[in-house]
Each structure stands twice: as C-alpha cells, then as structure tokens.
Amino acid sequence: MPGAELDLRAIVAAVSDAADHALALWAGGETRVRQWEKVPGHPVCEADLEVDGLLRASLGAIDPGAGWLSEETADTVHRLGVSRVWVVDPIDGTRDYLRGRPGWAVSVALVEDGAVRLGILAAPARNEYWIAQAGQGATRNGRTLRAGSRDALAGARVPAEQLPRIDRDLVTVAKPNSIALRMAMVAADEADLVATVRWGNEWDIAAAAIICQEAGATVTDALGDPLLFNRPRPTAFGLLCAAPGIHAAATERLAPRAREILGGG
C-alpha cells in the first residue's frame, strides 16, 4: 500500500517505549548490561539487542507489510521485494551508552521506494525527541527546526574532538558519539557541517537524514550525490550534511579526499 497513511502516534509510542527501556537499562549512566565486540572496535551490548527486539515486534505490528533492516538483525533479501522498509539502529552511539554519556539515540526510519518517509530519533538521556515526515517539516520536542543560514565555509561549526589540518578554519563544538545526533545538530542550527569519508550504513543516517532535509539542510554522500536507501548493499560512501549555503563549498573540499580513498585519483 504505497502512500498509505502513517499511524504516527502509534509509531512514536513504539519508539518511545523502546527508548524508555534503553534508558532504564542505562540507569542514569551506570550501565550494567553485558557487552562484547561484534568485531574489534565495534561494541554491542544487551540493550542493543533488547531494543531491537522490542522495535521489531511493535513496528511490525503497526505495518506488517514493511521489511526490516537493522544493525542488530541479520539482513535478508526479503526487504528488497517490498516497497516499505523499517531502517533501525536500536542504539546509535553505543560507545557513549556504555561510557555513561548521554550522546546516544534510538534511530528509526521508514523508507518507501528508496526515500525516507519518516524519521524519529529518541534520545531520552538528553530529553530529546526528534520527528520528521516528508513534506511536513521537522521538530525537536514539538518545536520546529530550521538549519542555519551560514554561507561561508570558514568558521562553520563541526561536532568533532579535533580536525584535520586542512579543516583548521572550521570550529569544533561538542560531539555526541551518535552520528545521527551530530546530524540532528545541523537541523537545529547547533552545528553547520557533519562530514565523513568512509563507508557507512543506512541505519546510521536514515532517520537523521530526513530530519535534516526537512529542516532545510542538504544531505548527500561524500561526493555530493543524493542518498538512496534500501539498496542491496545498504551502505553509502561518506556523508555530507550541511547548512545549505555551505554544502557546495564543503563538497568541493571533501570530494577530492573521497575520490582518493575510493581509488579515483
């Protein structure tokens, strides 16, 4: 049923319930959940899996025909044969979660025919709930978001701990571990630019992408090309999320690095 009306209230409730469960396990930063590494350098914990299970059950009941793509669920080809897919990161920013820091969020997007239709970020440790629907704007805690109007790349605010030498004309601001929350900072005009030059997964950015776009920011891959979702290999090379007035200049600076990494010279 492409274009079907969303039960937004039920979806928000499902995400909120899952986020509350994650917050209860986080216990004010004193996390006691079992943790391990999926591969070296990539932590996961019981909360990731429990939130994944809760969301798959509740969202599946809301839209039984939708496919499923999640960081914590083995991928299958089923999602490629349906028009709508839930794209989920149960806890984006697991490192902050395990360190007792608040820079983590539950990220849920509904993708339809390759485009994000709905995005929700629930960051209960920060008392933040971000929601966007295609064509209907973006909000944080009910307040409308609008990306900044900066038109000069120099001085742009970047959520980062340090910057490469070539980017020393930029300004660092506080960096949550969750890349979705870093992107959302651009939507809220708390940052001007978030960029990466590595392969990333759809579940990391899908919800934040529509939040940023609906707030007026420009979101592409590291080469400046549009992002597509629910691809057979659900990844994109790099990310460039920026205030619209600096996206072209940021692309001009970032794309050569991206091409070099990709082997394009």
From TrEMBL:
<dbReference type="InterPro" id="IPR020550">
    <property type="entry name" value="Inositol_monophosphatase_CS"/>
</dbReference>
<dbReference type="InterPro" id="IPR000760">
    <property type="entry name" value="Inositol_monophosphatase-like"/>
</dbReference>
<dbReference type="InterPro" id="IPR020583">
    <property type="entry name" value="Inositol_monoP_metal-BS"/>
</dbReference>
<keyword id="KW-0460">Magnesium</keyword>
<protein>
    <submittedName>
        <fullName>3'(2'),5'-bisphosphate nucleotidase CysQ</fullName>
    </submittedName>
</protein>
<dbReference type="GO" id="GO:0007165">
    <property type="term" value="P:signal transduction"/>
</dbReference>
<feature type="binding site">
    <location>
        <position position="71"/>
    </location>
    <ligand>
        <name>Mg(2+)</name>
    </ligand>
</feature>
<feature type="binding site">
    <location>
        <position position="89"/>
    </location>
    <ligand>
        <name>Mg(2+)</name>
    </ligand>
</feature>
<dbReference type="Pfam" id="PF00459">
    <property type="entry name" value="Inositol_P"/>
</dbReference>
<dbReference type="GO" id="GO:0046872">
    <property type="term" value="F:metal ion binding"/>
</dbReference>
<feature type="binding site">
    <location>
        <position position="91"/>
    </location>
    <ligand>
        <name>Mg(2+)</name>
    </ligand>
</feature>
<comment type="similarity">
    <text>Belongs to the inositol monophosphatase superfamily.</text>
</comment>
<feature type="binding site">
    <location>
        <position position="92"/>
    </location>
    <ligand>
        <name>Mg(2+)</name>
    </ligand>
</feature>
<keyword id="KW-0479">Metal-binding</keyword>
<dbReference type="GO" id="GO:0008934">
    <property type="term" value="F:inositol monophosphate 1-phosphatase activity"/>
</dbReference>
<dbReference type="GO" id="GO:0006020">
    <property type="term" value="P:inositol metabolic process"/>
</dbReference>
<feature type="binding site">
    <location>
        <position position="204"/>
    </location>
    <ligand>
        <name>Mg(2+)</name>
    </ligand>
</feature>
<keyword id="KW-0378">Hydrolase</keyword>
<dbReference type="GO" id="GO:0046854">
    <property type="term" value="P:phosphatidylinositol phosphate biosynthetic process"/>
</dbReference>
